[in-house]
């Protein structure tokens, strides 16, 4: 005999209450039959004797809505690896039977509480939700006016009517900005600090000077900002709630590495990531060892695309970089005996290795977390690149600005390892592997929007063009919605 799941009006009310707010999760209420449910419920309430077909349809729509909501909140509306084949980070709730889950929670009349509990537990998610509410409110009020100036740039000390317009534009997202009421056209210190904050929030050079790059960022419409937040909320729904008590998080889009312990950032440093055509992949792994004074065996892609063409153009290339050609068994091969033109087209049977040293491409230390991408974190001799605000210069691996400080922290549970011991090891000028007593989870992520605990919202340029495919998928109706 048929027994409806939605006998309790309390369950229905809780589901509808949640649906009315689900846009603040970055989800579309119409994906969960919001309008259909409201119309059908109104029809049933107005009818003295509800039609059995209407009741059956209501049961079906409510169940499908709840099932979809639970699964979308619990593991994402979209499939991460379908949307982004290079997204392999650890997933949330990969093995949950959502049908059984929905059935059990309905019987306990905890619909709204259950749905709320399924949202990611990371405070990054709740912070981003607050940011979405803020930007949706701005959007509903009409967004912000475009800004431009007849001057080449605006900076502190300038007196010009465009300064007042700049202050008005910044106040939309950064709150009221105090100024001298006698002359609102004067670019004062308070406005300078707000420009610096805006530039920091948008990954620009934070010099307080309003030039072309800052103006372009000011004129990104609120709709794009809302979309960016929605995309990144979905990324957090993909990601496991348990990243590890102590873990490393690299935000590829922000060119930054964080070491997080018990929810607090205990160390951060600038990072260099893969070029757009050699993207750093998104994945999770476990760092198990470090190598001081590493040598570098050139990966096949770099060997084929970079090194062999360089040797053809400059026969002295290998010698200048202390690189050796070796066989698979490690025996040296004379580079002058190799037909490099043929190697470029017919394959290369050898390996090329760069010896340890300060000019080694990996620098003085590499951090290893075995993975099939052959990606790792390492030092670099090219220190000048860290002065750039956008740092997509590598072939996929992550170079960091303060590798020795990271090594010191990671080795804090290895007896006898401190900075003095690290320096002694480096001075030996030979490779040494050190296994971590406390292995550390590593998560390479791609986040183009986030917010901090103070409510400051940050955006980054989508250097790998990963947002748009995700947003297209989020806008698409779910399959079950199309069938019902």
Automatic annotation (TrEMBL):
Q: Which GO terms describe its biological process?
A: cell wall organization; peptidoglycan biosynthetic process; regulation of cell shape
Record bears the keyword Plastid:
no
Q: Which residues form the active site?
A: 378, 397
Query: Cross-referenced InterPro entries, in alphabetical order?
Result: LD-transpeptidase_YkuD-like, LD_TPept_cat_dom, LD_TPept_scaffold_dom, Peptidoglycan-bd-like, PGBD-like_sf, PGBDSf, Transpep_catalytic_dom
Q: Which UniProt keywords apply?
A: Cell shape, Cell wall biogenesis/degradation, Peptidoglycan synthesis, Transferase
The question of whether Transferase is a record keyword is answered with: yes
Recorded GO molecular functions are: carboxypeptidase activity; transferase activity
The residues covered by the L,D-TPase catalytic domain are 246-422
Going by the entry's taxonomy, the superkingdom of the source organism is recorded as Bacteria
Pathway the protein contributes to: Cell wall biogenesis; peptidoglycan biosynthesis
Q: Name one Pfam family in it.
A: Scaffold
Regarding protein family, the annotation reads: Belongs to the YkuD family.
What is the name of the protein in this document?
A: Murein L,D-transpeptidase YcbB/YkuD
Lineage of source species = Bacteria, Pseudomonadati, Bacteroidota, Bacteroidia, Marinilabiliales
